[in-house]
Write a structure and sequence with these properties.
Layout: H1 3-6, E1 11-20, E2 23-33, E3 38-42, H2 49-57, E4 64-69, E5 72-73, H3 79-84, E6 87-90, H4 102-108, H5 117-129, H6 131-135, H7 146-158, E7 164-168, H8 176-192, E8 196-200, H9 204-210, E9 213-218, E10 221-227, H10 228-232, H11 235-241
Parallel strand pairs: 3-8, 3-9, 6-7, 7-8
Antiparallel strand pairs: 1-2, 1-4, 4-5, 9-10
Helix pairs in contact: 4-7, 7-8
Length: 244
């Protein structure tokens, strides 16, 4: 692989704007996500974080701008095709199908693999990463604990073997201990599966401890970008988001 190819970001967001009807939400948002890194996006409620991830995933159309996934323009690519290209989103709350079993939810995450050896092999791999799910395969997803549901949502997204995993507020409703366990699992996934991760998270202290890079979104605009270390020592970030 050439040096040029190695330096292509996994995700490039260029001048992205979008909204809901006549209400603008994102304004000329631009940033890059390097391959193999964990990148955090922080910001107050209503800053546009969920809209940003949903637009990248293709669930909300952009009004202007460009999205590049590993050097390929996906700006007008349907959401399902973005998933096939290696992008996966874990939405806020996980959005599992509560009246389906854990295994059935996992299978939905890899429908493109078909019901063959590839599907079975991937479920076996995922259950090694998430042992609690191996024990719960036949259980209804709606009967899982909050932490188990989030683990299942992440596992379902991983079934498609994504290159870029995006997570929207994965710690919502979880205890500090379960949050620590979940974020640790995500960090391990990023390392073991050569995965690029974009994570939106309200628990800023915890997410900056696991991320390498960070962006601050405010009123639909990127107001600050840098390393997670720079964010951790920034007085404004500390006072606004870290309670210091």
């Amino acid at each position: 692989m050439s040096t040029t190819q190695q330096t292509v970001p996994m995700l490039e967001v260029r001048g992205l704007s979008t909204g809901y009807g006549n209400i603008p939400v994102l304004h000329d948002v631009s940033f890059e996500v390097p391959q193999g890194k964990v990148t955090a996006v922080i910001g107050a409620n209503g800053a546009g974080k969920t809209t940003l991830l949903s637009t990248i995933a293709g669930l909300i159309p952009a009004t202007s701008g460009q999205l590049m996934l590993d050097g390929t323009d996906i700006s007008r690519t349907p959401a399902a095709s973005r998933t096939a290209a290696g992008l996966a989103l874990v939405p806020e709350g996980g959005r599992l199908f509560p009246f389906m079993t854990v295994r059935e939810n996992l299978e939905l995450g890899a429908y493109s693999l078909g019901r063959d050896a590839g599907m079975r092999q991937r479920i076996a791999e995922i259950c090694e990463i998430f042992p609690v799910l191996a024990e719960r395969q036949s259980q209804m997803a709606g009967h899982l604990s909050g932490g188990e549901r989030q683990m299942c949502a992440v596992a379902r997204a991983m079934m498609s073997r994504p290159r870029l995993l995006m997570l929207d507020e994965p710690s919502v409703g979880l205890s500090p201990l379960m949050t620590e366990r979940l974020l640790s699992t995500i960090s391990d996934l990023a390392a073991s599966e050569a995965l690029t991760v974009v994570i939106v998270e309200q628990r800023v202290t915890e997410v900056l401890a696991m991320a390498e890079l960070a962006h601050m979104l405010d009123h639909g605009r990127i107001m600050k970008s840098g390393t997670a270390g720079e964010f951790r020592t920034d007085r404004m970030i500390q006072e606004t988001y870290m309670g210091r």
